[in-house]
Amino acid sequence: MLDDLILGMAGAGGDGVVSAGESLLSAASSEGYHALMTKSFGSQIRGGESSCRVRLSTKKVLNPGGALDVLVALNWEDFFKFGAELPLSVDTVLIYEEKAGPPPETLKARGVVPTELVPVAIAELTKKSAGTDKAKTSVVLGLLSGWFGIPSEAIGRGLKKKFGSKGEGLLEANEKALASGIEYARAHPLRTPHAISKPKGPPGSKMLCDGNDMCAAGALFAGVKFFGGYPITPSTEVMQTLTREIWKYGGTVLQCEDEISSIGATVGASFAGKKSMTATSGPGMDLKTEILGLATIAELPLVILNVQRGGPSTGLPTKPEQGDLFQAAFSGHGDVLRPVLAPTDVEDTFKVTVDAFNIA
């Protein structure tokens, strides 16, 4: 039995790979495992691909880990676009879509070919069990449950939560796909068992959250009373969480028509004496800069969350650099001193958000 399991998945943008990772994360945390997930998205301009890696452990998890214990590749082309984000070793169990064919020569060129290669007709299993090809990731979750000991009951609860209110037959189709994956795994055991141990200590689920969740919680704890925002990836969840929660504490969320309006409203609320905040990413910071200068010259306290992309504007699809960081620190009018705080992990985001309000 393993105390630690690192899983990776890669596929096309519409395959639901990240959604499957989130379901896996939710199932594991509800059973009391420590878990961490990272996810990557390619540029949708060139068709789109996505990947995720999930680390499950019976002990506290501090990083995403090294080489994968398990990789699920729904097609090779998308897998190779993620390079070192999904590192393999000879001990990795490589599960791949049978119709995609065996691992190509480019995998051998990397110098590492896993010894256990497991072709599975995932699309065929999905069509046969669910009557649709839209439930592939539920088959994958079933395979992972059957081979690696991730509790199927917890995954099933996650499917009910996700699909229970999304149309007639959708939940049933995904439940059938999950069952077919579990059944296939039991009928075709791996050469070497890789099941993860049950969590140690008293039973009970773990709190599942990300940095945006913690930022919203920290803002509420710090006494935020106004949030002016505009939806922008990857910061939107802060506004979504505050929209749901801030009214309980006497606050207001205003979803504005654009980034400029959102910081304008936030500065106005600050002028009226309220603790105010906005959140954005690279292109939004571009647009907010002028009114940020106004807040500076008027000496109005303001907290801005800049959830960075890999580069300015659209981020990695155009060019990778640290432009977002320079923009946060130096984009101002004249000789402006601007405190820039950077949390080190999800837990730290709560404290840093509170610090930001206190400094402001």
Plain-language structure description:
With 360 residues, this protein is α/β, with parallel strands linked by helices. The chain folds into 2 domains: 4-187, Pyruvate-ferredoxin Oxidoreductase, domain 3 (3-Layer(aba) Sandwich); 211-359, Thiamin diphosphate (ThDP)-binding fold, Pyr/PP domains (Rossmann fold). It has helices at residues 17-30, 76-80, 105-109, 122-130, 136-148, 152-163, 170-187, 211-222, 236-245, 259-271, 282-297, 323-330, 346-359; strands spanning 4-12, 34-41, 49-57, 70-73, 93-97, 116-120, 226-229, 252-255, 276-280, 303-306. Strands 2-3-1-4-5-6 form a 6-stranded mixed β-sheet. Strands 8-7-9-10 form a 4-stranded parallel β-sheet, sandwiched between helices. Helix 3 (105-109) links the parallel strand 5 and strand 6. Helix 4 packs across helix 5 (136-148), helix 6 (152-163) runs antiparallel to helix 7 and helix 8 (211-222) packs parallel to helix 13 (346-359). The N and C termini lie far apart (50 Å).
Shape: elongated
Q: Which stretches of 5+ consecutive residues score pLDDT under 50? A: none
Provide the domain count: 2
Main sheet strand line-up: 2-3-1-4-5-6
CATH topology of the largest domain: Pyruvate-ferredoxin Oxidoreductase, domain 3
In total, the number of strands is: 10
N-to-C terminal Cα separation, in Å? 50 Å
Helicity level: 40-55%
- The average pLDDT is 87
* CATH superfamily grouping of the largest domain: Pyruvate-ferredoxin oxidoreductase, PFOR, domain III
CATH class of the largest domain: Alpha Beta
Largest sheet: 6 strands, mixed
Radius of gyration: 23 Å
- Sketch the topology as an H/E string, one letter per element: EHEEEHEHEHHHHHEHEHEHEHH
CATH architecture of the largest domain: 3-Layer(aba) Sandwich
